[in-house]
Known about the structure:
36% helix; 8-stranded mixed β-sheet; 13 strands
Amino acid sequence: MEPTSSPRQLARETIRIESHLDGTNERSLADDVLDGLTRPFKELPPKHFYDARGADLFDQICDLPEYYPTRAERAILEERAAEIAELTGAVELVELGSGTAAKTRVLLDALQAAGTLERYIPVDVTESMVRDCAKTLTSEYPGLRVHGVIGDFERHLDRIPPAAGPRIVAFLGGTIGNFPPGSRRRVLRQIAGLLGPGDHLLMGTDLVKDPRVLEAAYDDSQGVTAAFNRNVLHVLNRELQADFDPEDFDHVALFDPHNEWIEMRLRARREHTTLVRDLDLPVHFDAGEELRTEISAKFTPERLQSDLTAAGLELVRWLTDPDELFALSLSRIHAH
Ligand code: AVJ
């Protein structure tokens, strides 16, 4: 504690939080539902899974014996964080989809040990997560400044403050896999826009492997992933006054070997029509009809290379766990 400044002043200097969420999130849900549930093959984007209950179910997924990505990524970080800190010389860490910042500490520890750490910039749609982690991390890391951005990394990247020195932009967990190939490259190009010369992108990607291992990770024996999948219907019921019975749907998780991605779907057990009241939209399901709720792409090093290249990035380091389940890639903007 600085003797010259009151705790209030100190807090003002160390923590800054900006919110960019107004009504636009609800609008995007309505737009996505109107668009996705009137298509010949019904589909919803996975970002709507994550209300408070969905975020909690996802945390439970991360602890499941079948769901290896979280553990594998953490193991790589623990093994290689010092090397990442040294290679990047980063003074700040921007984290897209920071959540509880659980894995972040490994990186912050390494940057602090390297003596370069100054600022952490968490970007997340969940306000409470950004505020809580700002509080906790500033007390755990003396001298750390936190500039939280409450917003959607698909829409609010321009709100991220300019770099104060060499930066790492971290996009962990394999979330990039939620985007189909075209959008994936668009998102990567936008993220590349946060980087100047001397900055790095640190991105987590799940890797192609035995389909049985992949499918078990998305269809666990305790049914947590099934509950997570059905949770999107609870979100629609609450936010748009829909009348889905989530138990009218089976959880489906399949590896598509051609596209090399996992697809999660909800399959109607019987023919029925639900009403999305706020949109005045009746939605008919045939018995067995499926609604696609998520794709989760699995990568090979070659595939990731070509996506990075298409976004104007070049690979600097490819870091994996001993079983090559998961990879962290460190890349930078392509020097011309
Ligand atoms: C948070 C998008 C990386 O795709 O593995 C977990 C979400 N879905 N189980 C993933 C998820 C089903 C997860 N990501």
